[in-house]
């Protein structure tokens, strides 16, 4: 029994010694190859510095919004919704819709392909979206990628394969637009943040302002068109019914639609009220040049160590 214990202790001691020797040998090999590691690290650090300097500055403009009140009398509408919700639905009237529902719908409209495509065409931003390469702080001017857009002939010159064309399609523009526009809604406070990233801080700010203006206008026009259509339907129902109580309710529904139209006409911030407007950002949000250089240096050290270990491994294999 004692021999067995002694044998176990001896084996553990030998294993510990071998482990210590291996660890010592590992660091010794690393030390011997320090020049290779240093050279590889310098190369990768230089490449990461070059990459960091070649990337353009990206600026982010953002605005803080809050859902605007819908402006309808909740008490009267609630009573009408309980008694004549079906009739109102036939007329296309949503008596139970609140400002939160309207803002949620507005956010989805804002993210939609149709709204984005119309936004790009309306403000003629395709060039700044798809071909902008750099921005000059001194003259506040955009330089465009000559491989994409020829500023001398004012023509798109992209070299692309079918089905794409030199001039980017609205589908391509929509995908690119989604990458630089961020819409976040807080469940706790109800606040909405709209932000845009671009190489030009002035363009980033302008696009945020346009987005807010356009979505308010879009939702206003939708509600006004719906109210007019509903009013026409209700008037037709008044002419055909002979029950005085139903006529009274129909007149009340028409009155609510008139309130909707009046409310839309007097308010520019129809669905979103601006709490903190977008400003021209002074500091960039990317690239993180210091981080890129640090990651490049660490990656160089790792590659250098792997090279040393690989050389030692093949040397040992040849000697076997």
From TrEMBL:
It is found in: Cell membrane. The keyword Cell membrane applies. The keyword Membrane applies. The chain crosses the membrane at residues 35-55, 290-310. It is a multi-pass membrane protein. It comes from the Bacteria. Residues 21-121 form the Polysaccharide chain length determinant N-terminal domain. Keywords: Cell membrane, Membrane, Transmembrane, Transmembrane helix. Its main location: membrane. PANTHER family: FERRIC ENTEROBACTIN TRANSPORT PROTEIN FEPE (PTHR32309:SF13), TYROSINE-PROTEIN KINASE (PTHR32309). This is Wzz/FepE/Etk N-terminal domain-containing protein. It comes from Pseudoalteromonas marina.
């Amino acid at each position: 029994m004692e021999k067995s214990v002694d044998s176990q202790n001896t084996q553990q001691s030998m294993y510990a010694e071998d482990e210590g020797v291996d660890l010592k040998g590992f660091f010794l090999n690393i030390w011997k190859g320090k020049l290779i590691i240093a050279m590889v690290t310098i190369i990768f650090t230089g490449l990461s510095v070059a990459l960091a300097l070649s990337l353009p500055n990206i600026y982010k403009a953002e605005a803080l919004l809050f859902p605007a009140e819908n402006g309808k009398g909740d008490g009267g509408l609630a009573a009408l919704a309980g008694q004549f919700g079906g009739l109102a639905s036939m007329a296309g009237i949503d008596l139970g819709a609140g400002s939160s529902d309207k803002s949620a719908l507005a956010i989805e409209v804002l993210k939609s392909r149709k709204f984005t495509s119309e936004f790009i065409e309306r403000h003629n931003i395709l060039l700044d979206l798809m071909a902008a390469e750099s921005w000059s702080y001194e003259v506040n001017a955009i330089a465009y990628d000559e491989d994409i857009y020829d500023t001398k002939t004012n023509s798109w010159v992209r070299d692309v394969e079918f089905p794409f064309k030199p001039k980017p399609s609205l589908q391509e523009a929509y995908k690119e637009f989604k990458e630089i526009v961020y819409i976040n809604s807080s469940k706790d406070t109800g606040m909405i943040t709209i932000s845009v990233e671009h190489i030009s801080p002035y363009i980033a700010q302008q696009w945020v302002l346009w987005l807010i203006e356009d979505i308010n206008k879009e939702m206003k026009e939708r509600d006004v068109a719906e109210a007019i259509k509903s009013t026409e339907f209700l008037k037709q129902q008044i002419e055909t019914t002979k029950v005085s109580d139903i006529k009274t309710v129909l007149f009340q529904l028409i009155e609510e639609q008139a309130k909707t139209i009046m409310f839309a006409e007097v308010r520019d911030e129809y669905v979103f009220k601006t709490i903190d407007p977008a400003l021209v950002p002074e500091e960039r949000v990317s690239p993180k040049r210091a981080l890129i250089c640090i990651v490049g240096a660490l990656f160089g050290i790792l590659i250098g160590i792997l090279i040393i270990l690989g050389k030692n491994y093949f040397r040992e294999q040849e000697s076997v």
